[in-house]
Prior knowledge:
By secondary structure, the chain is an alpha/beta fold.
Amino acid sequence: MTMSLIDKLYKILSVKQILYALLLIIVLTILLFPIGLPQGIAASTRNVYNYVDKLPQNPKLLVEVYYEPAAGTELQPMLGAVLRQIIIKNPKIVFVSTINTGPVMFEKLKAYVPDVFAKLKEGDDYVYLGFVAGTETAVASLAKGMKEFVAQDNYGKPTASMPIFNSIDNATDVNVVLIVTSGSDPIEYYVRQWETPYKTPLLFLVLSVIAPSVQPFVSSGQAVGMISGQKAAAEYELLINKPGSAVAATDAQSGAHVLIMIYIVLGNLLYWPMKLRDKKERTK
């Protein structure tokens, strides 16, 4: 007996390898060619964008690069987006890490946003102090004097002769501290050692899983704002009109969800006619 069209379609769509292959193709295609699907912008993300937008010309920033490779996929896009927004203001930026994976992640950051670092002159506009041991003690020492505390940058160059430290050297010089972190420890360090004694504004860029634990610092006014999670990173990329890996990831996720819904609809369209046919055959 020849197979009906429904039977043939059902047999094809029941092959899980084909379904997974289609899903993989959709995800990879969107990751390589982001669509930039419209999405709502959370108030918290827009608040951070507005705060950065209102910083004065030639702002002075300290950026704490405190995350591991596993967290880079989520944190690097949001940091890259903020840097792309602020680069038009001709900033002075001191990068530092109080975690030993920081140097690796900083090199990845430079490769991720080469357009940003192409506009910054090392030693004049930015410096990376590298991994600074001492956790909270190190954070406190940085607040008192950066070039005195760290004699050489990550690449062995003496900090005393760097022009950047003529304009930014301690907590009172800094307009805002960006704490890009996969853990809550550095946030507590900077709140105690920078915000409390010097009233230096803090801005958090964090993993979504730790956002609830650090939200109280934002709610209490001890931080000016927070971006958390890949969705917020995608929102920020859309705000600066430069879709990147975060937008690609959220687009791919949306594409996967749409395909799965199509699978569900097709599965039901094939299932019910077959069920009705079987019922009719049993009643004969």
